[in-house]
Design brief:
Blueprint lengths: L1 H47 L6 E2 L3 H13 L5 E4 L9 E9 L7 H6 L12 E11 L4 E11 L2 H6 L6
Parallel strand pairs: 1-4
Antiparallel strand pairs: 2-3, 3-5, 4-5
Length: 164
């Protein structure tokens, strides 16, 4: 009987662990889908304004920043421009916001996607970072979104700080 109980407990643990893995994968899939949606908004805004297409890249810093804002509960919309700190070499601008529906972009995202004034360097690449947080058993969810534009890869390499 003890062996049977141990077997049931082990089987139950395996089922619960696999459900947890499925839930985690689901959040990851939802973040990826939201990132693709935001990227499409950026691409469409640029196309409608006759701007050059940007190459989409993966920048892990964006998701980290989004998750840090989520942890603080910071739902503000913000924006920065100029070359980023050393860990973000090549960054030209960033925009961040929080929403319960990534399919409804704020007007600021569409304006930001147009890029900087002609007096600044034009971006060549962009990235999207998403952090999804669910509350109340998944009934309420909120996306923290960070997007960034970057100079070309070659210029980024040339801007890497060198330490003597």
């Amino acid at each position: 009987m003890t062996a049977f109980c141990a077997s049931v407990v082990t089987s139950l643990a395996v089922v619960l662990a696999s459900q947890g893995a499925l839930a985690q994968r689901s959040v990851s899939d939802m973040e990826k889908s939201a990132a693709d949606t935001v990227a499409k908004f950026i691409e469409t805004a640029r196309k409608h304004n006759d701007l050059p297409k940007l190459r989409r890249i993966s920048d892990g810093h964006l998701r980290v920043d989004a998750c840090q804002r989520a942890a603080r509960g910071d739902k503000s919309l913000g924006q920065s421009s100029g070359i980023g700190p050393p860990e973000k070499v090549g960054t030209l601008s960033a925009l961040w916001y929080s929403t319960s529906d990534p399919n409804q972009p704020p007007p600021e995202l569409l304006e930001w996607a147009k890029g900087p004034e002609p007096k600044y360097e034009q971006p060549h690449r962009f990235g999207v970072g998403i952090c999804l947080v669910s509350a109340s058993g998944g009934a309420e969810q909120r996306y923290w979104i960070d997007v960034g534009t970057y100079m070309s890869a070659i210029k980024s390499i040339l801007n890497i700080p060198t330490w003597d």
